[in-house]
Design a protein that fits this description.
Distance between the termini: 19 Å
Radius of gyration: 16 Å
Shape: globular
CATH architecture of the largest domain: 3-Layer(aba) Sandwich
CATH topology of the largest domain: Dna Topoisomerase Vi A Subunit, Chain: A, domain 2
Strand content: 25-35%
Number of domains: 2
Number of helices: 4
Helix content: 10-25%
């Protein structure tokens, strides 16, 4: 991904840590509209079949493409996750989006395992301690509560780390770190 539009997109979002091997760049990724656009592509793990998460990008990498949808899944992703870091001995940290999870991995929770999930996936071989990084909106907080209830019922120790109202954790990194 080094030197690609996808890397430029993540760096302008103030994500300055090493990027996971699960992330790739595709210069002409198929979009549901039939167009081919540059995209950040992420492998979704923990599934019986291949699935990917796509974020369509502007040609210069300065933001998401002006298309609907700007993000799309390919394949069934229920029960899978995009694993972004792997810090042994830490908590499992889940977040709603790739940018949010990478923001946590780049400083806010740098010593933790961080995973971006679509639905609950509790991988083997990690401590049964879970932190849910909830977005600061009603939908994000409700999803965090549902995930916490499900994980608790399975015996996990759960904490919720709510972002401030109207924000996500990438917004917080962008406020704290200067551009460039």
């Amino acid at each position: 991904m080094e030197g690609t539009i996808a890397e430029a997109y993540l760096r302008q979002r103030r994500i300055d840590c090493a990027l996971s091997e699960t992330l790739r760049f595709h210069p002409e990724c198929w979009h549901p509209s039939g167009r081919r656009l540059p995209a950040l592509v992420a492998r979704v793990d923990g599934l019986p079949r291949v699935a990917v998460h796509r974020t369509y990008l502007r040609p210069d990498g300065c933001g998401k493409a002006a298309v609907d949808p700007a993000r799309a899944m390919l394949g069934t992703t229920i029960g899978g996750a995009v694993r972004l870091t792997d810090a042994p001995g830490g908590r499992l940290v889940v977040a709603e989006g790739i940018e949010t999870a990478l923001s946590l991995a780049c400083g806010l929770l740098a010593d933790h395992a961080t995973i971006c999930v679509a639905k609950l996936w509790l991988p083997e071989g990690v401590p049964r301690r879970l932190t849910i990084a909830a977005d600061g909106d009603d939908a994000g907080r409700a999803a965090a509560r549902r995930l916490a209830e499900r994980a608790s019922a399975l015996g996990w120790s759960v904490d919720i780390l709510p972002a401030p109202i109207g924000r996500d954790w990438n917004d917080i990194i962008m406020l704290r770190r200067p551009a460039g």
